[in-house]
Design brief:
Chain lengths: ~210, ~325
């Protein structure tokens, strides 16, 4: 769809569209589906199953998040490869996705799980997950430089943006690896925070 | 440590209150129980009696407001997380396992109970064979019927041996074959490993056939605790007469008119609890003349646990037969 709007070749818009679309796959599964899954589990009493097994809450959240994030691997690579081909971008550095998926996945999955576990009603968990995904779509796929300043702040708050930026930077002929690492670092730190939040939300919900 | 060496689960003075719509509900109001090791112990009562609240406290899911719970020598009020190592719990919901196949649900649960991959696999195959689930082993739980899904969850509960099984209405929706498989599996574990079973039910027939002892729960209290036979002895010397009328009861017949105030009525069915002598006279009266013409069906039966429950003052009448 964006092929008609954005010019192919080495330009920031094409970088943003391809990296944003690839990370959107992670957002769909990790944020949207996980929020729905945990929302359903909490509101139907399904959490009792895990709460009566000798496993720490963090393992349940991490295990589920990792399982959901791993489902996204093929989709992310296919999207990134197809996007790179359509926009004439180099494919030599797609390996960076092996770092982007787990880090952005952790950040978004933690957020998704927390939304699902904290929502007072199952429908609200679904709604929150879908809103989160819409945010990841709009703020991830549109080039940051073209967004109004307040929207850019919103973009900075969304953990997946750092994954998008890290991936987008690698399309440059001479990537700024220090910035890539910094973005991935922020993603990882937010991931740690959001998984901690999700674990706390799980403990609260399972009680 | 445990006060009673032969005890599996000792509960005393358990109180749990929660708020619902601005009013305070005492779901458990001073419950005392002692379940022995190797016993199949039942909690019988209508919906809303407080059975599930009690079970959620025993399994460490809910913290009581007051009282103590001892599971095999462990204080579950102070250390609720220990319950997960002592018991296998079958709750009423399967949503946590719905996306997995039957075999994977059982194996994963076993792994989470601390089994190695190999042990979990072996136990899963054994349990699936034992319960006759082979044809369904590779189908996701969400695609199964209610009774099949229940049996699959029961299979997951059995993988990873536990000294205590807590089963919340395990046979809901199951066909007779599946029910039999559940009770044989329970019996086998008790005979071979001395497993204790705490069963929540509102089905009186099931309670009479499988339980060693039963606690009757109503209004958040244990109103009686005995063997099914012992409870039925409370209503010994009584029989139950059910009369089902074709249309309206023929109250112009004096014998029927005399029953009108005493009978418990459910639609066209009248139920009476009385002595065998009087029952005989009543049967004679309603099986002749105009009363017989109006009668669709009648049954005369010895008392069940439901009769004992009503005699004890059970108020809700929500038990299933």
């Amino acid at each position: 769809m964006m092929r008609g709007v954005v010019d192919p070749g080495d330009n920031p818009s094409a970088h943003a569209v391809v990296s944003g679309s690839a990370v959107l796959v992670v957002a769909f599964v990790a944020l949207n589906l996980l929020a729905q899954y945990f929302g359903k589990l909490r509101h139907t009493g399904g959490l009792d199953h895990y709460a009566t097994l000798p496993v720490p809450p963090a393992s349940v959240v991490l295990g589920t998040a990792a399982a959901y994030a791993s489902f996204t691997v093929p989709g992310v690579f296919v999207t990134a490869a197809a996007g790179s081909w359509m926009f004439d971008l180099p494919m030599g550095r797609l390996w960076i996705l092996l770092a982007v998926i787990p880090l952005a996945g952790a950040a978004l999955a933690g957020l998704g799980a927390a939304l699902g576990l904290l929502a007072p009603r199952q429908e609200l968990a679904t709604l929150a997950g879908q809103l989160g995904m819409s945010a990841a779509l709009l703020l991830g796929v549109l080039p940051a430089s073209r967004l109004p300043v307040p929207v850019q702040w919103l973009r900075d708050l969304l953990p997946s943006s750092y994954g998008v930026d890290a991936f987008a930077l690698t399309f440059a002929p001479q990537p700024d690896w220090a910035r890539v690492l910094l973005d991935l670092g922020v993603c990882g730190a937010v991931g740690l925070g959001s998984l901690t939040l999700a674990t706390w939300a799980y403990r609260r919900a399972a009680r | 440590m445990s006060k009673a060496p032969q005890g599996c689960c000792t509960v005393s003075g358990l109180v749990k209150t929660y708020r619902a719509g601005g009013t305070e509900v005492r779901a458990n109001d001073g419950i005392d129980l002692a379940v022995r090791r190797g016993e199949i112990f039942g909690l019988l009562g209508p919906n809303g009696a407080g059975k599930s609240t009690l079970v959620r406290q025993l399994t460490g899911l809910l913290r009581p407001d007051a009282g103590s719970i001892d599971l095999l020598g462990h204080d579950i009020v102070r250390h609720p997380e220990r319950a997960a190592r002592l018991l296998g719990y079958l709750g009423q919901e399967s949503t946590a396992l719905d996306e997995l196949t039957v075999a994977l649900a059982a194996e994963t649960t076993g792994r989470l109970r601390g089994l190695t991959r190999r042990q979990a696999r072996t136990e899963t195959v054994d349990v699936i064979t034992e319960l006759g689930l082979e044809p369904l082993a590779h189908r996701p739980l969400a695609k199964l019927s209610g009774g099949q899904r229940r049996l699959a969850c029961f299979a997951a509960t059995l993988v990873g041996d536990r000294p205590l099984l807590v089963l919340d209405e395990p046979t809901t929706g199951m066909d007779p074959v599946a029910r039999r498989a559940v009770w044989s599996a329970v019996d086998r574990r008790r005979a071979e490993r001395g497993t204790t079973v705490l069963l929540v039910t509102h089905n009186v027939i099931e309670a009479e056939t499988v339980l060693d002892r039963v606690a009757v729960v109503d209004g958040g209290k244990v109103i009686a605790c005995d063997t099914p036979g012992g409870l039925k002895a409370l209503v010994d010397g009584h029989v139950r007469l059910d009369l089902v009328w074709r249309h309206d009861a023929p109250t112009e017949v004096p014998a029927v008119a005399a029953l009108a105030d005493r009978a418990e009525r459910t639609g066209r069915r009248w139920t009476l609890r009385t002595t065998p002598d009087e029952a005989r006279e009543l049967v004679a009266a309603v099986t002749t003349g105009p009363a017989f013409a109006a009668l669709d069906d009648f049954t005369l039966a010895t008392p069940t646990l439901e009769d004992a429950y009503l005699r004890l003052g059970g108020r809700h009448g929500g038990l299933a037969r």
